[in-house]
Amino acid sequence: MDTISLTFEMSVVLGLLLFTVVLFVSEIVRIDLAAIAVMVLLGLLSQLPGLGSLADVSQLFNGLASNAVVSIIAVMIIGAGLDKTGLMSKVAALILKYGGNTEARVVPIISGSVGVISSFMQNVGAAALFLPVVSRISVRTGLPLSRMLMPMGFCAILGGTMTMVGSSPLILLNDLILTANKSLPEAQQMDTYGLFSVTPIGVGLIATGILYFMIFGRWILPTEQKAGDATSGRSMKQYLKEIYGLKTDIFEITIPEGHPVEGQTFDDVIQRYHIYIIGSAYRGKTFFAPVIQTKITTPCRLAVLGREKEVRFMAEDAGFTLHKKLDVFAEDYAPTRSGVAEVVIPPGSSLIGKCAHDVVFRKTYGASMLAIHRGEETLSLVATEEHKPTQIGEVPFRAGDTLVILSTWEALTRLTKDRDFVVVTTDFPREELRPTKVGWALGFFAIALFLILFTDLRLSLCLLTGAVGMILTRVLDIDEAYAAVSWSTVFLLASLIPLGQAVQTSGTAAWIAQQVLVWLDGWPIWSLQVGIAVMATVFTLIMSNVGATVLLVPLAVSIAVAAGGNPAVFALTVAISTSNSFLIPTHQVNALIMGPAGYKVTDFIKSGGIMTVLFLVVSLTILNALF
Which spans are transmembrane here (predicted)? Predict the structure, then answer.
């Protein structure tokens, strides 16, 4: 191997790398802005004498059209399309059904599921598809996104090591081995790896990742949660307690078949026990705000709003079954779909002088009225420490009354167009789910997966086929598609690509590799393998994992042959270790989850540092045990 000397151009690239790391860690500016600034600086430096080959300015912005970046854009749109149909809400409900509402059970289910999925599709695709699922689980359980997205993202990366098609380096590995064989004597020829040759390594790494966050998550994961403001649509329990002092919650009860209340109305039960019946379910059909004059037919389930002690008393007194948590109504009353809002009766409203019963409020507006705030007084069916219960359904409306309602966001959107109300709550989801489009969404998702797994088309083209198909079939419109893309993520990744190319084309990467090899000269075989793994880990943080693999596999094979080691194992060590990308958010998955969870670079250093060491220990141990 020819000796590589450090040139002025390499020194500049090393300086840029150091400058980038300082910007990322210090967060003097936003990380995406830092990446853009480095890309611009790289282009300007290439205009100086002696640095002309640092970057090709005519291709400086080609990262925005790279296969990886376009793939991320497409998979975000596909994920938004699946979410638009309500499919992701059902997946979230299924996870909560088996995982409950605790972090210790939810996180392993999410992380394990993403890990398995990412073994057959690009890890950023698996992470992007589960991002809306985790978001909905967060608002339904109250668990901060920051406690769930990092375990999910790390396991998506780890899942790429489960099969030979799970990550780009492993896909390339067999081709690189065949190329290396041409220069090796017959006795040292390497065999290629089968689809599931690396599965034990991947399983071990995913299990390690899950156990790591289960055991140490309470200390290494951030706990900050963004709070909404006074005009935001919020969850019912939090809102009523903070604003009106109403200590209530939603409970689910079952009225058994043949119960004596059959034939009575919901209003009869409401008046008797001073609770709200805000939902009903009968023969598989649910009603969000049933008319209170509806007669009870058994067996049925009811969603009841009230104080816990009063609901428990009602269940015991009447012989109803009180469930531990929402089941049938879990999705209907999730904060992603409904919540508490405030509307004001303006002067000139046709409702003045009428009461809720007169206008059949629930049937007309699709919402349940929980309280009337009038001056300094709050009227509610649920008693507070200051006020006795009031039959608010019979209270005539006055101009200026603020009605506290429990409504779906879709129904609240309609109220914003009704002149009889002024909707005070402004920050709430105004989207309409399109369940009728679920067939189209699943169809084009399946087409994209088929193209990825069974054709040689570029990944970006496969995914864009699915994304464009969803737009053309109106699963979501083009504006919603644009809104689904995290452009900060796109520019972060696109801006780092030229720097990675400069590290490789300038010879900086080869020079660094040479220095490491000189340092490792004469070491035992096992330590050489560790050194190769560490080098691959470092390289994948500063350049693409594909570039690191292409550069290091030939070097690793040469080292193994010279030291008497197994060249195939050394090559596989490189391909596996290029997935060890947890320290800084340069990996596509880490960049994807950084914004929604509000992570800082220091969060990745804190959590990813230990994960990096665990990855090296577990992967090398299993790899040598197998091969």
Answer: 6-26, 33-52, 64-82, 149-173, 193-216, 438-454, 483-503, 523-543, 550-576, 604-626
